Amino acid sequence: MFGIWGHNKAAEITYYGLHALQHRGQDGAGIAATDGKDLQVHKGVALVNDVFKHAEFKELTGHAAIGHVRYPTGGKDSIEEVQPFIFHAKSESVAIGHDGNIMNKAILRDELESQGSILQTSTDPEILAHLIRRNGQEVSEVSILQALKKMVGAYAFLILTEDKIYAALGARGIRPLSIGKLGDAYVISSETCAFDIVGATFVREINPGELVTISDEGIQSTRFTEPQKRALCSMEYVYLSRPDSDLNHVNVHASRKSMGIELAKEAPIEADVVTGVPDSSISAAIGYAEEMKLPYEIGIIKNRYIGRTFIQPTQELREQGVKMKLSPVRGIIEGKRVVMIDDSIVRGTTSRRIVKMLKDTGAKEVHVRIASPMITNPCYYGIDMSTRDELIAANHTLEEMRDMIGADSIAYLSPEGLERAIVRDDSLEQGLCKACMTGEYPVTLKDAGIKMNDQY
Question: What local confidence, expressed as pLDDT, does residue 321 receive?
Answer without folding.
Answer: 57
